[in-house]
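Kindly inspect what follows.
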Amino acid sequence: MTQPSVYDRIREKIIRNEIASGEKVSIDALVRELGVSQTPVREALHHLEGDGLVMRARGRGYSTTPLLDEAQLRSMFEVRLLIEPWAARVVSADRTTNPGRDLLGLVSSFADAHPDVCSRSDLAAHDLEFHRAIHRATGNGFLMNAYEGLHAQLHLFRLYAEDIASASTLQEHREVAEAISACAGERAEALMREHLEQAMHRFLPSVGGRPDGRELPPTGRILPKA
């Protein structure tokens, strides 16, 4: 089995809140803990800065970024609701590039490996892989760049408890994947929107928000139907 990289190991520590939000990151401590030199640690922190998980201040080194607040959480989901339901509909249209079978495989593999609960980092990795596969299948590089810039999973899953009952997320993923596989674009679009709304409501209590608060955008479509 391939050993996780220094980047992966530090990222997991941040997602699991082993390095708390707003806490100074000690390079020397990470060197001792991970048994590596300073160079790979510094390279990992540079990449994590690009992910928005750490920030660097001149003369003060690195510290972890604060957790999302309610306004940031809602804003992130508003952006996702603009692009992801549309993406789910688009990839359902062409049987030759339809990613439905691969998406169903991702869900089944994760469910088999995590029958009850899973760590936040494991679910974050699955969620990233699932949504990224849909965006990649659109062939739209601008959409991919916009989504990657959000680093949504890395930020969101810092809000979860360590042991996550993943059944709801996986069921929603499975329903989206089934609709895409069946080339049911309208249904895939509606299910993706519902999945994102439900996901936001699952995260809201972690930031002191109420699921019955401000309304979400009325549409997840950024382009008109063909």
